[in-house]
Amino acid sequence: ADYIEGKGWHNHRVVPYAPITLEPSATIFHYGQTIFEGMKAYLSEDGVVRLFRPDQNMKRMNHSADRLSMPQIDENHALEALVELIKVDKEWIPKDPGTSLYIRPFMIATEPHLGVSASKSYTYMIIMSPVGSYYEEGIHPVKILVESEYVRAVAGGTGNAKTAGNYASSLKAQEVADREGYSQVLWLDGIERKYIEEVGSMNVFFKIDGEVVTPALNGSILDGITRKSIIDLLKHWSVPVVERRVSIDEIREAHRTGKLDEAFGTGTAAVISPIGEFRYQGELFYVNNGETGELSAKLYDALTGIQKGTQEDPFGWVVELNKK
Ligand code: PMP
Questions:
Q1: d(Cα 243, Cα 303) in Å, to the nearest integer?
Q2: Is 113 found in the same domain as 46?
Q3: Ligand 1, residues 144, 169, 222: which to mutate, most atoms within 8 A of Cβ?
Q4: For strand 8-10 and strand 2-4, is the pairing parallel, antiparallel, or unpaired?
Q5: For residue 108, what are the contacts with CB-CB under 8 A and spacing of at least 6?
Q6: Which of 4, 11, 37, 86 could be a cystine partner for 57, CB 3.0 to 4.6 Å?
Q7: What's the complex ipTM?
Q8: End position of a domain, from candidates 83, 109, 131
Q9: Atom 7 in ligand 1: which residue has the minimum CA distance?
Q10: Chain segment 263-306, per-residue pLDDT in tens
């Protein structure tokens, strides 16, 4: 769909994936005025398609739009449109275990205008593509490199918006991580490089001495949908969980005293990603002997079970399509 100031959203359409035309002076190219979301739809044997908390993605899209001076979308209408598209495209959703339809809604600023001000025109698009299983050989731990030179975001910046600039600023650190055999970067706060923020595309949790802790939202951390679901699930199970500041020194100390039981990342792509090793300024911390922790495995099974409809959904998180 397209948006023009004064006219609003119009020209809704479904088209095959193909190149699009933009003016070289379009605002997106110069000032990065663009936002996105990432979601997955799962298809089960009985033909039911399941979306996980899609209302939360629409809500976060509008939060990002507000921060980037972009127009709001009608959350209900956008969700209805998405559901219609999935129905059109149902044959595209793979059924094999772990596979899904990846959904990428995004909005770009299209006004041809070289000047630092919000665009007066936008396009909202949704790309859909079948994706394979994140874990081809079952859930396994990843290695994480703690970044102490570069920062991804600071409070007051755009860190808690899902916008391209946050990812652009992370590419250089990610390149180093890739080169050194680490799967993602762990970001520290942008002022003191002391407090833990999040992993490249995941929020992060630690189990320290029996208690689960995750960095509290502070304006620069993305308000992850998997993160909030994990917190609710832990509370539902009566497992102690707290959101607060967590310093890298606390993790180092917990590791030194044998109290760092588990660590894991949470995000739409992997759902739960156990962390087996951190490297911070040349120092290595192995977590749970580099193996998947009991709680990480339990959370993974529970959340993926809810998402795929093989387990009860006590929270009403799942939206089912094509149900007979
Ligand atoms: N942090 C960042 C920076 C991300 O890109 C993502 C992926 N969207 C997450 C956290 C996890 O968020 P969610 O659980 O909503 O996928």
A1: 20
A2: yes
A3: 222
A4: antiparallel
A5: 22, 26, 28, 33, 34, 122, 123, 125
A6: 37
A7: 0.99
A8: 131
A9: 201
A10: 999 999 999 999 999 999 999 999 999 999 999 999 999 999 99
Residue 226 alpha carbon, nearest atom of ligand 1: 14
Query: Same structural domain for residues 176 and 259?
Result: yes
**Rounded to two decimals, what is the model's pTM?**
0.97
Shortest-distance atom of ligand 1 to CA 203: 10
Verify whether ligand 1 is closer than 6 Å to residue 266 (CB atom). yes
CB 288 less than 6 A from any atom of ligand 1: no
Q: How many domains does the chain have?
A: 2
Ligand 1 contact, 227 CB (< 6 A): yes
Cβ–Cβ < 8 Å for 4, 121: yes
Residue-wise pLDDT for 56-68, tens only, equals 999 999 999 999 9
**Cβ of 190 below 6 Å from ligand 1:** no
Q: Residue 80 belongs to a domain with what CATH number?
A: 3.30.470.10
> Which structure tokens are listed for 253?
């100390």
Residue closest via CA to ligand 1's atom 10 equals 202
Query: Which stretches of the chain drop beneath a pLDDT of 50?
Result: none
Regarding the beta carbon of 267 and ligand 1, being less than 6 Å apart is answered: yes
Buried b (16+ CB within 10 A) or exposed e, 193-215: eebbbbbbbbbbbbbbeeebbbb
